[in-house]
Here is the input.
Amino acid sequence: MDPELSNKIEETVLEVLKNSDMESTTEFQVRKLASEKLGIDLSESQRKKLVRNVVQTYLEQQQQLKEEGNEKVVEQKEEDENSDDNDDVDDKKKGGKEYDDEGDLIICRLSNKRRVTLTEFRGKSLVSIREYYKKDGKELPSSKGISLTAEQWSTFSKNVPAIEKAIKKLEGR
Here is the structure.
């Protein structure tokens, strides 16, 4: 992406963020407003990833400002020590969080090929549990998996204890 366009997108996204209610505004809404202001489509993968990174950085900075004045955290020293052990950490990790090639947040890796991600599709947040495959050096999602809306995830997570109980019962046979 052209550095000039990249800077213009970043400035516009920051302007939108500064004028937004951070308690209710979603990344999708920020991207949509910035897209309208710039008159360009920001849903294209590379642009969407840029917007996501700007939003994430902004939120981290806001959180950091909140914590200043409160007690200083000693975790910085621990992070510095840990980062010495991980000099080859992938640049897809930001603030201790890992993102895939599409800019989606990786919650956890279940195995080499399976992972849980938080993604956004048509303005809705989805929890995806999916298999991935490699093509041209990129890890891509396969059709094998499931994506749950926030409501579906809530229902599922409330029923995890019942699922665990049923598993124990089956294992006890």
Summary: The chain has six helices and six strands.
